[in-house]
Amino acid sequence: MPTYNKLVRDKIPKIIENAGKEALTRILDEMEYEKHLIEKLGEEVEEFVQTPNEEELADIMEVVEAIMKMKKISWETVRAVQAKKRQERGGFEDRVFLEEVME
Predict the structure, then answer these.
(1) Looking at residue 53, what DSSP letter applies?
(2) Alpha-carbon distance 6 to 37, whole Å?
(3) Helical packing angle, 30-50 and 54-71, nearest 10°
(4) Measured between alpha carbons, how far is 87 from 81 in angstroms, rounded to an integer?
(5) Is the dihedral of CA 38, 44, 46, 49 positive or negative?
(6) What domain of life does the native source organism fall in (predicted)?
(7) Are the C-beta atoms of residues 1 and 16 closer than 8 Å to each other?
(8) Are 83 and 54 in contact (CB under 8 A)?
(9) Amino acid 37: pLDDT
(10) What is the pLDDT of residues 22-51, one digit of tens each?
């Protein structure tokens, strides 16, 4: 029987049970949840690096939204910070690739 020890989407245990298998699960406390959400974000980003498509990007967004909800951060707050950083430092539209800084 495979061991996963990872955060999964809410309906995964039911999907496993519907396939005739048994899923051993537990509910994480707040500290564990935050830790595993951050791990999950890294996992999803790595999957996107390997397969850069909209499905993998949607998985990243799902984890980001869970983190935002847990930390009580609104999209408005994130967008405001994003706009401020874009104004101060720019975005990525110009495709600038820094190769070296000379002293």
Answers:
(1) S
(2) 9
(3) 160
(4) 10
(5) negative
(6) Bacteria
(7) no
(8) no
(9) 98
(10) 999 999 999 999 999 999 999 999 999 999
User: How many whole angstroms separate alpha carbon 5 and alpha carbon 77?
Assistant: 33
Q: pTM, whole model, 2 decimals?
A: 0.91
Percent of the chain whose predicted confidence (pLDDT) is above 90 = 98
- Token representation of residue 64: 């980001």
Q: What is the mean pLDDT of residues 2-21?
A: 97
The Cα–Cα gap between 13 and 6 comes to: 12
Structure tokens at 18: 């519907």
**Residue 63: both structure tokens together:** 């984890």
C-alpha separations of 91 from 66, 75, 96 in Å: 25, 18, 10
Q: Measured between alpha carbons, how far is 4 from 39 in angstroms, rounded to an integer?
A: 13
pLDDT digits (tens, 9 = 90+) for 63-101: 999 999 999 999 999 999 999 999 999 999 999 999 999
